[in-house]
Design goal:
binds zinc ion, 7-stranded mixed β-barrel, Cytidine Deaminase, domain 2, globular
């Protein structure tokens, strides 16, 4: 997929959004991470999430994550089965804002994926935002459509 035709909206059905939040509450106060997979609509503007894969954060850190490699591979393979594709990588910021950290920017290896970041600064009131990260900077913010 050419990077300049990437969707600018990410629809996350409410049940999947709730599973993601539950996962990130489970790993709290460490960062949690995983992938969102699904399909892009015919117009190419909106990506619709149909499945979520949890991946272990092998750093077990409150301020950084690194996906456990074998789980990452399995998640990417399963996400790309059934005509679907990996749309986004998500992770939490237990103590930080829903915005990419310097480390996130430095380690953004997937210019075609949306980086969903969930802030748990107020643990009971998670805030999620999505971004394309390219050339070690925020390229574009993606509109998250929850419950769609
Ligand atoms: Zn981060």
């Amino acid at each position: 997929m050419p990077v300049n035709s990437a969707p600018t909206r990410l629809g996350i059905p409410r049940p999947i959004y709730q599973v993601m939040l539950a996962h990130l509450q489970t790993t709290y106060p460490q960062e949690g991470c995983g992938f969102l997979a699904g399909k892009v609509d015919a117009a190419g503007h909106t990506a619709h999430v149909t499945q979520l894969s949890v991946v272990e954060n092998r750093l077990r850190s409150p301020t950084a994550y690194e996906m456990e490699p074998e789980q990452q591979l399995q998640a990417m393979l399963s996400g790309e089965a059934h005509g679907e594709q990996i749309l986004a990588v998500y992770h939490s910021h237990p103590y930080g804002p829903a915005f990419p950290s310097a480390t996130d920017l430095a380690q953004a290896y997937y210019p075609e994926l949306i980086y969903v970041i969930v802030s748990l600064q107020q643990q009971a009131r998670p805030i999620a935002r999505g971004f394309y990260l390219r050339d070690q900077t925020v390229h574009l913010e993606v509109q998250l459509l929850q419950g769609s």
